[in-house]
C-alpha cells in the first residue's frame, strides 16, 4: 500500500515519524466538485474544514506492516496450543515445549516492526496481542464447557479426551503464559532498539542485535513461565535449566537469520504495495 499525504505544499508528513507514534489515519475519499451543485459544494466544503488538518496527514499502513500484524495475531494463539508437546533439540538431549517456535516468530515480527516502523509501534502491538489471547481463551473455555455430541461420546471418546487434555490447561499455566509473553517481548523490543544506537543497521549488526535481544528475553521468559506454572509442584531446577539453555540456543541459531529475512520480506512487501 502506498504511503501518501494529502494537501498543498509544505503539508507532507514524514511516514517514519507517523509510524513511530503508533497511530494510523485513513484518507477520506476525494470529491468531484463538477458533479455537485453550488449548494452541495458549499455544504461539503464547510463540513470538510474541521478535518482538513487530519486529511493532510492521512497515510495508509505499509503492506509489510499489515501482513505482519495479521501473522502476529495468529502466532499468539497458536503458541498456546502447540506448547502441549515437548520436542528434542537434536543432536543434544535438550527438550523444549513446541510453543517456542511460534513464540520465536513473535520475537522476529516485533523486532522487524521495531527496526522498520519504530519501537513505539512494536510495543503497542505487543499490548494489543493480549486481545487475541483473551478472546481465544474465552472461546476455548466455552467450547470445553459445551456438552459433546452423542456421536462423539459413543464413537470418538478418545478424540474427545485428547482434545480436552490439550486445551484444558490449568489456571496457573493460563496465568503464567501471558505474564511471560508480555514481559519477554517488551524486553526483547527494548534491548533490540537500544543496541541499535543512532546509526543505521547493517545486516551483521541486525543479526547480532537480534540474537542478543532474543537470547536474553527468552531466558527471562523461561524463568517467569516455569516458576509461575510449576513452582511448588515439583523440583523445577532441571526443567528451568533445560528450558533456558534450549531457548537461548534457538535464539542464537535461528533468530538472527529469521529477523534478517523478516526485514527483507517486509521491505519487499512495502515496495510491492507502493506500485
Description of the structure:
By secondary structure, the protein is mostly helical. 70% of the residues lie in helices and 2% in strands. It is built from 13 helices and two strands. It has a two-stranded antiparallel sheet. Strand 1 and strand 2 form a beta hairpin. Helix 4 runs antiparallel to helix 5.
> What radius of gyration results from the CA coordinates?
24 Å
Counting DSSP E segments of at least 2 residues, the number of strands comes to 2
Distance from first to last alpha carbon: 8 Å
The outline comes out as globular
Count every helix, treating DSSP H or I runs of 4 or more residues as helices: 13
Beta strand %? under 5%
Helix content: over 70%
Query: Could you name the ranges where pLDDT drops below 50 across 5 or more consecutive residues?
Result: 1-36, 42-58
Overall mean confidence score, pLDDT: 77
Helix-strand pattern, N to C?
HHHHEEHHHHHHHHH
Structural class: mainly alpha
Largest sheet: 2 strands, antiparallel
Q: What's the arrangement of strands in the largest beta sheet?
A: 1-2
Amino acid at each position: 500500500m502506498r504511503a501518501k499525504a494529502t494537501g498543498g505544499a509544505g503539508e507532507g508528513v514524514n511516514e517514519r515519524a507517523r509510524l513511530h507514534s503508533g497511530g494510523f489515519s485513513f484518507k477520506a475519499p476525494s470529491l468531484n466538485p463538477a458533479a455537485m451543485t453550488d449548494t452541495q459544494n458549499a455544504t461539503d466544503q464547510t463540513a470538510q474544514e474541521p478535518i482538513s488538518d487530519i486529511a493532510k496527514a492521512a497515510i495508509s499502513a505499509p503492506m509489510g506492516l499489515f501482513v505482519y500484524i495479521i501473522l502476529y495475531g495468529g502466532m499468539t494463539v497458536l503458541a498456546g496450543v502447540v506448547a502441549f508437546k515437548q520436542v528434542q533439540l537434536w543432536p543434544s538431549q535438550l527438550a523444549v515445549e513446541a510453543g517456542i517456535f511460534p513464540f520465536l516468530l513473535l520475537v522476529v515480527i516485533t523486532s522487524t516492526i521495531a527496526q522498520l516502523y519504530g519501537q513505539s509501534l512494536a510495543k503497542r502491538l505487543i499490548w494489543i496481542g493480549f486481545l487475541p489471547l483473551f478472546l481465544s481463551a474465552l472461546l476455548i473455555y466455552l467450547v470445553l464447557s459445551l456438552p459433546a455430541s452423542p456421536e462423539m461420546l459413543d464413537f470418538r471418546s478418545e478424540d474427545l479426551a485428547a482434545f480436552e487434555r490439550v486445551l484444558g490447561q490449568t489456571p496457573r499455566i493460563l496465568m503464567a503464559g501471558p505474564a511471560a509473553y508480555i514481559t519477554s517481548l517488551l524486553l526483547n523490543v527494548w534491548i533490540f532498539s537500544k543496541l541499535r544506537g543512532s546509526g543505521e543497521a547493517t545486516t551483521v549488526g541486525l543479526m547480532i542485535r537480534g540474537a542478543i535481544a532474543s537470547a536474553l528475553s527468552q531466558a527471562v521468559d523461561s524463568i517467569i513461565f516455569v516458576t509461575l506454572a510449576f513452582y511448588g509442584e515439583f523440583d523445577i531446577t532441571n526443567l528451568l535449566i533445560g528450558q533456558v539453555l534450549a531457548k537461548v540456543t534457538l535464539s542464537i541459531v535461528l533468530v538472527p537469520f529469521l529477523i534478517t529475512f523478516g526485514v527483507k520480506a517486509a521491505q519487499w512487501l512495502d515496495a510491492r504495495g507502493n506500485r
